[in-house]
Write a structure and sequence with these properties.
The protein contains five helices and five strands, in the order βαααβββαβα. With 158 residues, the chain is α+β, with helices and mostly antiparallel strands.
Length: 158
């Protein structure tokens, strides 16, 4: 029998597992090109769970979990940002799937749920981040129509 993939809004009981996945994502991304600066500037800081709990209660944020046979194996977080011109921009801050569960469709379900939420909120677009050289993530985002709109450059001084 094939495993069943699913996606649903996160619940308070999911927060410990989401925090665990977020910590795994930080470790994984910190090892990639650009990951050390990302970790210092943008990654979630410990303790992770209380911030996730605030986002779960925030009407301007959306947390979802991806499941395999009912077990949480992925998560995603999107938020809407009101820009200076009044428009809403959707921002996917977190998107992570357990390495052993990639390529089965869970990440796609999570991303689609986040994009749908952004659309329902009236966002004019969706942004996210892919580190340089992370071709898999870049290709994943491109499959949802996200393309580069800016490039951040960096030179280490120490």
């Amino acid at each position: 029998m094939a495993a069943e993939e699913g996606c649903r809004p996160a619940e308070p009981a999911d927060l410990p597992r989401i925090a665990e996945l977020a910590a795994q994502a930080i470790v994984e991304l910190s090892g990639l090109r650009g990951g050390q600066v990302w970790m210092r500037q943008s990654a979630r800081s410990e303790p992770i769970e209380p911030v996730l709990a605030r986002q779960l209660a925030d009407a301007d944020a959306h947390l979802v979990v991806g499941t395999l046979d009912g077990t949480v194996m992925a998560y995603g977080v999107a938020r809407s940002d009101r820009l200076r011109d009044g428009g809403l921009l959707g921002v996917v801050d977190d998107l992570y799937t357990e390495p052993g569960c990639r390529e089965v469709g869970i990440g796609e379900l999570v991303m689609q749920a986040l994009v749908d939420w952004c659309r329902e909120r009236g966002c004019f677009g969706v942004d996210s981040l892919a580190l340089p050289g992370d071709r898999h993530t870049k290709n994943f985002f491109e499959s949802f129509g996200l393309v580069a709109r800016a490039i951040v450059v960096h030179k280490p001084l120490t």
